[in-house]
Amino acid sequence: MRIALIGYGKMGKIIERIAISRGHSITGKSSSKKPISAIDFSKVDVAIEFTAPGLAVNHIKHCIDYKTPVVVGTTAWSDHLLEVKDYVTKNKGSLLHASNFSVGVNIFFDLNRRLARLMAPNQEYTGHIEETHHLQKLDAPSGTAVSLANDVILENENLSSWVHEENTVPDTQSGQLGVTSFREDGVPGTHSVTYQSTIDTIKMTHTAHSREGFALGAVIAAEWLLHKKGVFTMQDVIKL
């Protein structure tokens, strides 16, 4: 499989190494110094995009225009998701997007939804989500934390929104779920979902030990997406 890397930072370099180890080739690269327009898409089977929120939508549309399936790991562009889905559908393209490509995190997502359903009737518990990432992380809260929070709200009719603070637990009103972000040197990504009452605490945590899991998941997603049409997520890949 011939892969274009849209974004060639730390993640792009890890994806390159893993893709080559799985028998694929890298036939195009774009970065802050080399725009996506410099890639020859006639030599590309699938693109993998890890850049910045303000660039992702245009990158997706560019790939769709060139009839190239695209896997997107950039987060914090979900306000444009309906627009992008419509563009992909109208142009019979292929898009797979995820807030996190780690197989372990996607299992964590499923467990989070199940736990939220169990906790919904038990209003004596207060829920809270916490995420910690490296200092270079551009968005806060992380896309993974946003997915976790939205899933909790979806499964618990007592909650209607989430509120976010950095480095401290936010003040919440009735119907709100608190989300806290921390930025520390060298942390690939840790997410915790906690339910606390006056008598006990239930806590579920996923800790990434490196970026390898995210990169491997992105390559697996690209392998899965090839020759498919439509808009998909990592949940479609692992079929939980």
Distinct helical segment count: 7
First CA to last CA: what distance?
26 Å
- Secondary-structure element string: EHEEHEHEHEHEEEEHEH
Strand content: 25-35%
Q: What's the helical proportion of residues?
A: 25-40%
- Radius of gyration equals 19 Å
Structural class: alpha/beta
* Number of E-type strands: 11
Mean pLDDT: 96
* Total domain units: 2
Strand order of the largest sheet: 2-1-3-4-5-11
Question: How would you describe the overall organization of this protein?
Answer:
With 240 residues, the protein is α/β, with parallel strands linked by helices. It folds into 2 domains: 2-97 and 212-238, Rossmann fold, CATH 3.40.50; 103-208, 2-Layer Sandwich (Dihydrodipicolinate Reductase, domain 2). It is built from 7 helices and 11 strands. The protein has a 6-stranded parallel sheet, sandwiched between helices. Strands 7-8-6-9-10 form a 5-stranded mixed sheet, covered by helices on one side. β1 (2-6), α1 (10-21) and β2 form a beta-alpha-beta unit. α1 (10-21) crosses α6 (212-225) and α4 (103-119) runs parallel beside α5. The longest helix has 17 residues, at 103-119. The mean pLDDT is 96.
Give the structure's gist in a few sentences.
The protein is of the alpha/beta class. Helix content is 35%, strand content 26%. Helix 1 crosses helix 6 and helix 4 packs parallel to helix 5 (143-155).
Notable characteristics:
Rossmann fold; Dihydrodipicolinate Reductase, domain 2; single chain; alpha/beta; five-stranded mixed beta sheet; 2 domains; 240 residues
